[in-house]
Amino acid sequence: MMFFNPRLLLPAPLILLFAGCAEVDSNLRQGPPVAAAEPTVHSDFEDLLDFGANLAAMNAQGRSETCRGLAKRHKETPDKTITLQLMTGRLLSDACGDIPKILDELASIPPESYADDRTRRLVAIHTEALKRINSANKKISSLERKQKSVQNVLDAKDTAGTKKTESHLLREKLEAIRSMEKQLDETGDAK
Known about the structure:
This protein is an all-alpha fold. About 80% of the residues lie in helices and about 0% in strands.
């Protein structure tokens, strides 16, 4: 026959309590359950960033060759991705095309066609940079035209001054010749 021993029951709840706490403690040490990582989506932003970084790492000749190839592909089959690459490339190389043309093409791309907000912001930044470069180029061209105009005026004055100097010298020579003729005539008449 089995006897009921109350001393044996006393440790049982303590054992169960410790076992439960140990289970809770081990779950806390592991941290909250981690959700499965979402697949990363490669956006236009990363593509443009990679393209720009690769182009920046090239020498001037490599950039020019890359830009000429892009321009040729874009002429054959116009594409938003190539337009964005030309935009990025034009910041680094003149060979990537005509700024006003690139700006027109960028303006024709609807903002909602970009994959994400970062791409829209990058395009906005690059667009403003291209506008500044274009403005600076116009100012430089204007100054170069003015410089050529001033140089032409100076050259004309210099030429006129040279002609005046030459004509003055010719007059002096002519007068010297006349004076010598006169002297010869006088000495010839004296004989």
